[in-house]
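Figure S4 source data
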Amino acid sequence: MTGYKHAFRKAFPYTIPVLTGYLFIGIAFGVMYAEKGYSFLWAILMSLLVYAGSGQYLAVNFFTPGISFVQVIFMTLMVNIRHIFYGISLLDKFNQMGKKRWYMIFGLTDETYSLLCTTKIPEGVEEEKFLFAISIMNQSYWVIGSAIGGLAGSFLPFNSEGIDFAMTALFVVIFVEQWMDAKNRIPETIGVAAAFLCLQIFGADSFVLPSMLLIIMILFAGRRKLDEKEVAKCR
């Protein structure tokens, strides 16, 4: 444990924004899960072993009749396919972390990815321990929020209508932050345009998956030009 206490102490201030967000959306997930009639312990277990954020929100609806195993796989893949690109960009960094790389891959959420990519390692802290501390703390916030929400949903009856919008609100905040910080806003513009187009064609109930597929196709097709623009901006 040499150096880990110091790494956790140094990493904690950087995770405070994630703490405030994950507690609330974790609570929302726990409440939604409890409303399906499941024990809060299952909500905790899911957050420990699945830890997929929006994927967990989506999974709440998988426990209803009529959802096939193939649909579960496809929907989960489409919602979390962005993590493939997250992982590819961090391969070199994770390969230097030994056995801890397996947990780092597992714990790679949107918010954790953002911190791992943008946070400057403080002086006197080993990089791998600092990054590991960020990932561990972020998941702990989510698990704690899930536990609180599961308990509240089980023992405190209240109207939870609209609580699932918490995850949507978090993604809106992430998008706005990236829009404000990014020098190249072409990917964000493609995402908004593709979503708007598919919304008009497929309607509000069916536009998400077509939007994701269209965005992926456009980004793959224009990857070379986007890379060239990014390199030019960095010169």
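Figure S5 source data
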Amino acid sequence: MTEISSIPHKIIGVAVIWNDQQQILIDRRRPQGAMGGLWEFPGGKIEPGETIEECIRREIAEELGIEIAVKDHLITIDHTYTHLRVTLTVHHCHFLAGIPQPLECDEIRWVSLDELEDYAFPQANGQIIAALKSSA
């Protein structure tokens, strides 16, 4: 018999990427797979030996083809879905160079803080949006 606590746990570095117009870069997950079609803040799983800042920089380069500066920590969220436990370590980031491309997602969009609620995000992302609004 397996234990309920045996669901996978992923530690994810998440980027809230700001441009000079005070817009945030979000991306839409591909339709296949868990939470497909929902919007998210870009990021990905930390690799062994990597700091969270290194993880965020690498993931953004791989997923969006851009260079960012990882800035202040915003929030850390532990969230358990039915199939997965995640720890999201979220940092403010600043867009530096490149042209964002949807390399590993369906679509990308620059949006204002107020526009975030017009998009459907995974449940855990609600806390990120609330933290952004309270620190604005």
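The beta strands are 9-18, 24-28, 39-40, 43-45, 67-80, 85-97, 107-111. The mean pLDDT is 93.
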